Amino acid sequence: MKPRGEFFDVAVIGGGSAGLAAAVTAARRGARTLLLERHGYLGGMGTASLVHTFCGLYLLREEPGAVLANPGFPAEMAGLMIAATGLGPVRMGRVDVLPQHPVEFARIADVLVAAEPQLELRLHTEVTAISREENWAIRLAGRAGSLTVTAGMLVDASGDALVATLLGLDAAMAAVPRLQRPAYVFGVQIPRPLDESARLETAGLIVEGIRAGDLPDAAMGLTFRASGRLGEIFGTLDLAGGELGYDPLDTACLTNLEVEGRATASTTLAWLAGKSACWKSGYISHWPARVGIRESRRWLGETVLTGADLIVGRRFEEEIALATWPMEFRESPRGPKLRFPEDNRPAGIPLGCLKPVGLDRIFVAGRCISTDHDAQASIRVMGTCFATGEAAGRAAAGG
User: Fold this and answer.
1) How many other CB atoms sit within 10 Å of the CB of residue 223?
2) Which neighbouring-strand residues pair with 301?
3) Read out DSSP for 356-387?
4) CB-CB contact of 236 with 219 (8 Å)
5) Residue 3: per-residue pLDDT
6) pLDDT tens-digit profile of 52-82?
7) Contact by Cβ (8 Å): 218, 260
8) Mean pLDDT of 17-33
9) What pLDDT sits at residue 1?
10) Looking at the domain that runs over 181-286, which CATH code has it been given?
11) Is pLDDT at 244 greater than 90 in this prediction?
C-alpha cells in the first residue's frame, strides 16, 4: 500500500453489529464514510464468533408476542434476517430472541454496504495508530504495508475501546474475577434433530463423562441449539478464561482460549459419538474465526450508565435508544445469571454514554460505550449494539 492521504467525513473502526449500523447510517445521511474491519467479513460476534441469536431487539413482556424496542436500523436488521432465514422471534423463558444465521448476517451486511455509494469498506485492515490535529489521522496496516487516512469524525465500534488505548487515554475494565467469561461457539452436523429427550440424554452423558474423568470440566456448560438449517446445530461452551490469569486483550490468553475451545469441543463430540446413537454420525463442521469476548475495556464517557439505572428503568432527557435485555452475568463458566429490571421497564441509553469525556469529534458504539460492569452485561448484546451504532453514526454525520 502507498499512502494516499484520503479524507473521509466519518471513519468507523470495527465492523460488528454496532460498526455496521454506524457506517450505514452515516453514509445514508450523506457523509463520505470509511468502515474498517480486521476480518474478511462484517458482523463481529454474529459472524466471526458464530453467536446465532439477536438479543435485545424486543421489549421485556410477561405476555406473549415480541415487540420491537428500537425502530430504525435494529428493526431493519430484524426484518432482513427474518426474510433470510424464515424464522421469527422465539420465546426463551422470559425473553424474546431472534434466531440469526452467521452466513446470512455476513451476506446481509455486504448488501447493505454495497447499496451506499458514500460508504467505502476495507476488510483485512488493522488500525495501528491514531492522532489528531485538525482532523483524525488513522494509520492502517495490511499485508501490503501501511497507509494513513484522515477523517473529520471518528466512531469507535471496536468492542475494546481501541481508540482510547491508541490515544493513551484511561479506559474502564472490570477486575479479572468479575469479567464476563468468553463464549466458544462451533458448528455441528448431525443426522437428525436433537429432540428434548436427546438433549436430556446428552446433558446426562456429559456429566457422566466429566465425573469419570473422560471429559474436561470445561464441557460442563456445553449446550446445543438448532441453526434452522437441515442437520446443522451450534454448540456453545462458556470457558473459564484461565481464571485469575484471564485477560481478553492478551494474545497469549486468547491463543489458549482458541486451543481450549477446539480441544474441548472435539473431545466431547468424539466421546458422545461412542455413547449415543444420536451422536454416532455427528461431526464438527466449522470453527469460529475467533472466540467470543463478552467484555473488555469500556470508554469513560460524559455519562456512565449503571446497573442501578437499568434496574429501575431510568429514562434520560437526551436518550438515543432503549436497553431492554436483562443484565446477563457470565462471570463464571457455570451458565448465566439474569437480573431483570423492575416491572420489565426498559432503561434509556443517554447520548453521553457515546461521548468520551474531554474529546470532541468522536463517538463510541457497541459493547465499549460508557457503562459500569453491571450495565454492560445488558447493553453488549447485538440488538442493542445496532441501536447505539445507529445513534453514533447519526451523530457523527451531523445529527
Assistant:
1) 15
2) 356
3) BTT--SEEE-GGGSSB-HHHHHHHTSHHHHHH
4) no
5) 40
6) 999 999 999 998 899 999 999 999 999 999 9
7) yes
8) 98
9) 33
10) 3.30.70
11) no
- How far, in Å, CA of 391 to CA of 86, rounded? 28
**pTM greater than 0.85:** yes
| Spans of all domains in the chain | 7-174+296-396, 181-286
What is the structure's pLDDT at 333? 83
DSSP, residue by residue, 112-177: HHHT-TTEEEE-S-EEEEEEESSSEEEEEEETTEEEEEEEEEEEE-SSS-HHHHHTT---B---GG
- The domain over range 7-174+296-396 is classified in CATH as 3.50.50.60: yes
The x, y and z cell numbers of residue 238, run together, are: 462458556
Task: Find the length of the chain.
Answer: 399
The residues near 376 (Cβ < 8 Å, ≥ 6 apart) are 180, 295, 298, 367
Of the candidates 179, 181, 185, the one whose C-alpha atom is nearest the C-alpha of residue 51 is 185
- The residue assigned the cell 459419538 is 273
Question: What cell was used for 173?
Answer: 475494565
Residue 19: is it exposed, middle or buried by C-beta count within 10 angstroms (0-12/13-18/19+)?
buried
For the chain, helix, strand, coil in percent to 5 are: 35, 25, 40
